[in-house]
């Protein structure tokens, strides 16, 4: 209920998620894609020192490479949503894998920083975007009851790849230079094509066939065998066709659903994520160079990202399991707020870390909090908008976050160049994350209270469109009730007419029996015929 047909511009009703089976293969593919998408922009920071020497640029200039990658990952969200709704997830992911790989390969031949922006930044970032978003959509298609756990396991790909790509990048930099490292990284990104190939879509047509067969079977079971059953089935089909004809004004296929902006929960989530992204990615991007500037050897500085990744590996699945608990899942937005608050306070409390031990402690707590945020961010969005509108919602959210990505890390890099002080950057980034956590918790609480007041007086305050499955189901129930009440009215009228006719017939029969004449045969036939027709009419209307 509440789902439109494809010709009406909406996605078809999906088959029930299997919560397993081939879904575990899809989960592994999503694990790899998430690892490359999130870890790659951070792992590239290992090459920044060499790039600064070769191209004679500042740190803020090299920081734009990671920022452009993340901006393309987020900013091309609506384009990716349109392509997925038009062509499907698998073809889009195959194209994305080729673009991501070719971008890094071409980057190894660049001669200036602008060419590096266009290849490693724009082209590779676009390719990763065309892989990342469809993989999340497929994950939501294959999992429902186990979706929090699936999201946590898929999100664990980011720390796993971060803990491996960062040391690997350091080794490649020492043996082959940054050009050879970029070339080999481009070859690794071809694995995205393999992950795209396993994204097998669920059969959408099977459910419609089963529902049609079930409707006919129920019609045959409800009506007696013979002409009435055939007539009942034809009436049922006619009713369905009439409903489709009523709902058919939208003929164009809706490639991007903007109706989700009427959902207050979606608006709150989007604003909170924008503030969060301003400061979330700054510490891991600056961490390696901060450690090097404090006198930490290059190998040990790169190992700090591995510590974050190692802790993050266990934090994300564990947080996904907690979010899947029955008493936690309805309040997952508050758990997400707590994760953001934890992350922001970690940045603020660790701003004065000036030795390697202090940086290691920071990495441990940052890994836990960062893993919680990564495991919950898309689970909360799925819970707000539902699986049917998730493809459009994630594209629009990522587009809005792209502006924050373009502002956050480059601004932090420029402040580092100007102030030569990392402490201010950590304070600023942590404050932004804390602000996003407080905004999400307070706004969600206020909306929940307002929603409870509306539930107490549903007649005076009808629900203002949120696009959720529950609201669509309620509107459909009201429509069905109105339709059924219209159908029952003639049935009651027929019942009253039949009762009046039978009473009149009994009165005539009593008079004739008192006179000794009895009821004529012709009158009995007429009354019997009238009664039969009334019964048939009542039975049809009740069906």
UniProtKB/TrEMBL annotation:
GO cellular-component term (any): basolateral plasma membrane
Keyword Nucleotide-binding found: no
Compartment(s) of residence: Cell membrane
CDD domains in the record: MFS_MCT3_4 (cd17430)
InterPro entries named among the record's database cross-references: MCT (IPR004743), MFS (IPR011701), MFS_dom (IPR020846), MFS_trans_sf (IPR036259), Proton-linked_MCT (IPR050327)
Topological type in the membrane: Multi-pass membrane protein
Gene Ontology molecular-function annotations: monocarboxylic acid transmembrane transporter activity; symporter activity
Regions that span the bilayer: 21-40, 63-84, 91-110, 116-137, 181-202, 266-291, 303-325, 332-353, 359-378, 390-412, 424-448
Annotated keywords: Cell membrane, Membrane, Symport, Transmembrane, Transmembrane helix, Transport
Comp. bias regions, Acidic residues: 469-479
Region (Disordered): 452-543
Compositionally biased intervals (Polar residues): 487-496
Chief location bin: membrane
Annotated Major facilitator superfamily (MFS) profile domain residues: 23-448
Alphabetical list of Pfam families matching this protein: MFS_1 (PF07690)
Family: Belongs to the major facilitator superfamily. Monocarboxylate porter (TC 2.A.1.13) family.
PANTHER family (UniProt xref): MONOCARBOXYLATE TRANSPORTER, MONOCARBOXYLATE TRANSPORTER 3
Protein's UniProt name: MOT3 protein
Organism: Steatornis caripensis (Oilbird)
Recorded name of the encoding gene: Slc16a3_1
């Amino acid at each position: 209920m509440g789902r439109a047909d494809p010709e009406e511009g909406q996605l078809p009703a999906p088959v029930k998620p299997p919560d397993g089976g081939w879904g575990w293969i899809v989960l592994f593919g999503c694990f790899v894609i998430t690892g490359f998408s999130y870890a790659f922009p951070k792992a590239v920071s290992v090459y920044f020192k060499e790039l600064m020497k070769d191209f004679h640029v500042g740190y803020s200039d090299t920081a734009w490479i990671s920022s452009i990658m993340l901006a393309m990952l987020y900013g091309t969200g609506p384009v990716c949503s349109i392509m997925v709704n038009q062509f499907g997830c698998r073809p889009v992911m195959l194209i994305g894998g080729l673009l991501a790989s070719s971008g890094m390969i071409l980057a190894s031949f660049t001669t200036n920083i602008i060419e590096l922006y266009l290849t490693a930044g724009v082209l590779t970032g676009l390719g990763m975007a065309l892989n990342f978003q469809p993989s999340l959509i497929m994950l939501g298609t294959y999992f429902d009851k186990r979706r929090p756990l699936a999201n946590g396991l898929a999100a664990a790909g980011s720390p796993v790849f971060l803990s491996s790509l960062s040391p690997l990048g350091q080794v490649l930099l020492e043996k082959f230079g940054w050009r050879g490292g970029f070339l080999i990284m481009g070859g690794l990104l071809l694995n995205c094509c393999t992950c795209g190939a396993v994204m097998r879509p669920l059969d959408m047509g099977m459910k419609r066939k089963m529902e049609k067969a079930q409707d006919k079977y129920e019609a045959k079971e409800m009506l007696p065998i013979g002409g009435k059953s055939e007539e009942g089935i034809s009436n049922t089909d006619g009713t369905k066709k009439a409903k489709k004809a009523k709902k058919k004004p939208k003929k164009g296929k809706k490639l991007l659903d903007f109706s989700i902006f009427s959902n207050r929960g979606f608006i709150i989530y989007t604003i909170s994520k924008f503030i969060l992204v301003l400061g979330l990615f700054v510490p891991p991007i600056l961490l390696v160079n901060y450690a090097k500037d404090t006198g930490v050897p290059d190998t040990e500085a790169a190992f700090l990202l591995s510590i974050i990744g190692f802790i993050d590996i266990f934090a994300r699945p564990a947080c996904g399991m907690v979010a899947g608990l029955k008493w936690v899942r309805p309040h997952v937005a508050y758990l997400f707020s707590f994760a953001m608050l934890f992350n922001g306070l970690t940045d603020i409390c660790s701003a004065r870390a000036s030795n390697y031990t202090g940086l290691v402690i920071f990495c441990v707590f940052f890994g836990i909090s960062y893993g919680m945020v990564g495991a919950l961010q898309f689970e909360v969005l799925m819970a707000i908008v539902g699986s049917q509108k998730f493809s459009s919602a994630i594209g629009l959210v990522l587009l809005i976050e792209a502006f924050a990505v373009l502002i956050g890390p480059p601004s932090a890099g420029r402040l580092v160049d100007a102030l030569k002080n990392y402490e201010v950057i950590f304070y600023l980034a942590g404050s932004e994350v804390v602000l996003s956590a407080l905004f999400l918790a307070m706004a969600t609480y206020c909306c929940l209270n307002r929603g409870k007041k509306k539930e107490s007086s549903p007649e005076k305050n009808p629900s203002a469109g949120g696009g959720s499955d529950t609201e669509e189901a309620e509107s459909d129930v009201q429509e069905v009730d109105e339709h059924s009440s219209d159908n029952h009215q003639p049935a009651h009228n027929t019942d009253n007419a039949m009762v009046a006719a039978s009473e009149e017939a009994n009165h005539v029969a009593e008079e004739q029996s008192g006179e000794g004449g009895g009821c004529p045969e012709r009158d009995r036939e007429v009354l019997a015929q009238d009664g039969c027709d009334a019964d048939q009419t009542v039975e049809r209307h009740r069906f």
